[in-house]
Prior knowledge:
Elements: E1 2-6, E2 30-31, E3 37-38, H1 40-50, E4 57-61, H2 63-73, E5 79-81, H3 88-101, E6 110-115, E7 119-120, H4 123-128, H5 131-138, E8 142-147, E9 158-161, E10 173-174, E11 180-189, H6 194-204, E12 207-216, H7 217-226, H8 233-238, H9 248-251, E13 259-263, E14 268-269, H10 274-278, E15 285-286, E16 289-291, E17 299-302, E18 308-310, E19 316-321, E20 324-329, H11 336-339, E21 348-350, E22 354-365, E23 368-377, E24 386-387, E25 391-399, E26 401-406, E27 409-414, E28 418-421, E29 426-431, E30 435-443, E31 461-462
Parallel strand pairs: 1-4, 1-6, 4-5, 8-13, 15-17, 16-18, 17-19
Antiparallel strand pairs: 2-3, 5-31, 6-12, 7-14, 8-12, 9-11, 9-12, 10-11, 11-13, 19-20, 21-22, 22-23, 23-30, 24-29, 25-28, 25-30, 26-27, 26-29
Helix pairs in contact: 3-7
Amino acid sequence: xxxxxxxxxxxxxxxxxxxxxxxxxxxxxxxxxxxxxxxxxxxxxxxxxxxxxxxxxxxxxxxxxxxxxxxxxxxxxxxxxxxxxxxxxxxxxxxxxxxxxxxxxxxxxxxxxxxxxxxxxxxxxxxxxxxxxxxxxxxxxxxxxxxxxxxxxxxxxxxxxxxxxxxxxxxxxxxxxxxxxxxxxxxxxxxxxxxxxxxxxxxxxxxxxxxxxxxxxxxxxxxxxxxxxxxxxxxxxxxxxxxxxxxxxxxxxxxxxxxxxxxxxxxxxxxxxxxxxxxxxxxxxxxxxxxxxxxxxxxxxxxxxxxxxxxxxxxxxxxxxxxxxxxxxxxxxxxxxxxxxxxxxxxxxxxxxxxxxxxxxxxxxxxxxxxxxxxxxxxxxxxxxxxxxxxxxxxxxxxxxxxxxxxxxxxxxxxxxxxxxxxxxxxxxxxxxxxxxxxxxxxxxxxxxxxxxxxxxxxxxxx
Length: 463
């Protein structure tokens, strides 16, 4: 059995802490069993390790998130980086081709796909091991995991099981304690309207889809070839833009007539909005600030050095980061994505070598701007060579020491050193000890220049 974890999306419902480079799964706002703060992806990785499944995992992600995953999970994690973000169907197709061509996985081996950030108990990962058995006993092409809904949500897909008084006729197998373990699926509905969701729950005993997909590798090979696409990994990378930009639910699940499902009765929750996330944080305040005692059920998360005071406000979330400030009623927080328009360049990004935080941004005129950024570089790490074709750059070493490489020429630098970098010059920095740099760039208003300081080759498998 192989496991594919999908890590994508910008997590705009958790703005301003999440952005294109640091999605919701990377926010360290949960407590682990030792009382330390951890992110959703660190929690899932820890649980997979406890279930003995870590070595079977491949994480599919985009270029902006690859460094953050390595920083949080370590260099041993196996990453597959998409050529571009095209939703879950292309990501799963690429992972399947990679397992076939690079890992030489057999066509009859089961592949389990799940999001990288489910908030579940440890039992969930033990149940995943049963999916391969379910595929064998039901001869299904696809396997899903369903959980009993608590309200008619419009955010989830719904699995409608076949219902029959005869468990065998309905395709259900009996668990040891007599409860239904798994069975056939009558239909699948992806994110229906609230009225439809209510009817599905009441009349057809529908379950929430947990976002888990199980299939034999050969089944995905057949689906990809039927679409006129190559199943060889390198060729699929070249043709990646030909893949429809759509979800696996729409492209595969809703068009498959042979689906089985497993019922999961344990704890499962989507932490995709501020109101659900704060229910599981275990702490009401992170960062500088004060929350008055009469501010009940209020959470403050502050990532900047300026203190924030909350006085006499209950049932709210105050989130502060370099990307912006959010003050929201908890019940209203799911509407945040609807309110945000456009794509803002991330002001804070984590890399495997350190961090980048925009301190100040000033637009001088249509052709010029000044961007001041604080860079931290960990000891023994090196930033990749970067070039700003339309910007003049000044680096000031605030602390630490290391080696700057400017157009191939090495220069030892330390605290107080100032390095002037002309437009089109390539520069990188290797830290001999933990170092901090202040970078001031002046020139073109194209903020995309220099925003992505390090990335893996597009479409590469990082092993």
